[in-house]
Amino acid sequence: MLKILKYSFYDLSRSRWSYVYFFFYLLLGVVLLFLNNDLSNAVITLMNVIIILVPLIGTIFGVMYFYNSREFTELLLAQPVRRSSIFLGQYLGVAISLSASLIFGLGLPFIIYGLFQSGAIWDFASLLISGVFLTFIFTAIAFNIALSHENKIKGFGLAILVWLFLAVVYDGLFLLSLVYFQDYPLDKFSLVASMLNPIDLSRILILLKLDISALLGYTGAVFKQFFGTGLGAFTSIVVLILWVIFPVWRIKRIAAKKDF
Amino acid sequence: MVSITNLHKKFGSLVVLNGLDLQTPESGIIAVLGPNGSGKTTLIKSILGMVVPQKGEIEVNGQRVKKHWNYRKDIDYLPQIANFPGNLRVQELIDMIKDLRGKVARDRELIDLFKLEPFLDKKLSNLSGGSKQKVNLVLCFMFDSPLIILDEPTSGLDPVSLIRLRKLIQQEKEKGKTILITSHIMSFVEEISDRIVFLLEGKIYFNGTVEELKTSTGEKDFEHAIANILTENHA
């Protein structure tokens, strides 16, 4: 699997888009830090960008890479390589290279700014951890969709719909149901509902770390009340890990049955 | 070498292989023939584990194919359509496959044979169909595996390369290897193959030598003998 990972990574490191993504974060980090001059404001703005953009890029890149490397996949399938290693290797190649763009793109300006001297380092770390989780989750979801749809247009459309649903529509529905059922106790419901969406979950994780109750929102407040800050962060990380494991396990399962 | 029992494969409602049985001899060239859509490529891909059959058992050198992968180190495969990652250079692709297999390879010798030297640092997406097929042949023949599977090896080749390929296949046969070939060029098949396996409607309709095929159909000419089978069954 390491050899496949190496080649996927090598392939992506020559792709223009990895650099565009990297420079975008670099620019974003520089602009926010040096024009804003307030670290915790910058972290909050970054959070809002990361939570929407990282899943979108992970989804699009994952689907695109999978469809574009079909020839490579077919070539590998005839070689003495385990089937699951081919797909997991490619998945990890995409997810790791996207995460690297994120970490280095944002990390560099923050280091230059003097992050290591400031107390905000753990806030910043929680931002990067959520970003990496979201990359791994949405790339895995994208691979799932691409593996089950031979038709590129269908696969692409579905992937974008899933992103749109989790990033935008889900929150709307959630809010509507809170308003509609406001006479009932909704703690447990909102706890479960926020765990079912990795984007909400990462938002809560970052906000718990930042400890800004004004921004926590209803779900965040319930989370904090229910688990406390420490346990709340721990729980959200565990659920995020499950969010990675399940789609990856499904990649393995679909790949084992697919005809090429 | 390859032993197949009761192989079934459907794609949706389309039955491609319908209870196919096949035993290949220890060595020699076996041509798999059949009309378009008779399941030749599906059969080959099942042996390689690229297509997962619904039912049936395939063994290569006594190793079961299903859910295994290590047996593929004994197989050299030439795919029908030479689809390569377009952004790689020829030399990079060859090095990559060598690295993946980790076996001794005679790529230099084959690059000379097919005169690929000037193309080595060209991107694969810029190669012509015939040149791609030559790269395909180099990738296939550079390892010394006991089983060789060639899916339409002649497609896109010029006459000179065709002669070289024929010689190459003969040399490999003399080393005592098993070679499975599919082709639509009947003169090529007649000249090189020891046995003919004819697929029809997902089963083996005929399995024997070229001579046996001619006598059983009552035709003197190989091409007509094949046509005879087809017209008899579709008339």
Automatic annotation (TrEMBL), chain A:
The keyword Hydrolase is assigned to this record: no
Keywords: Membrane, Transmembrane, Transmembrane helix
Highest taxon of source: Bacteria
Membrane-crossing segments per the record: 20-36, 42-67, 88-112, 124-146, 158-181, 226-249
Protein name, UniProt field: Cu-processing system permease protein
Lineage of source species: Bacteria, Pseudomonadati, Bacteroidota, Flavobacteriia, Flavobacteriales
Automatic annotation (TrEMBL), chain B:
PANTHER family membership: ABC TRANSPORTER ATP-BINDING PROTEIN, ABC TRANSPORTER ATP-BINDING PROTEIN NATA
Taxonomic path: Bacteria, Pseudomonadati, Bacteroidota, Flavobacteriia, Flavobacteriales
UniProt-listed SMART domains: AAA
Keyword vocabulary terms for this entry: ATP-binding, Nodulation, Nucleotide-binding, Transport
InterPro entries with a match to the protein in the record: AAA+_ATPase, ABC_transporter-like_ATP-bd, ABC_transporter_ATP-binding, P-loop_NTPase
Pfam families: ABC_tran
GO molecular function, one term: ATP hydrolysis activity
The protein's name: Cu-processing system ATP-binding protein
CDD domains: ABC_DR_subfamily_A (cd03230)
Stretches assigned to the ABC transporter domain: 2-226
Organism: Salegentibacter flavus
Record family assignment: Belongs to the ABC transporter superfamily.
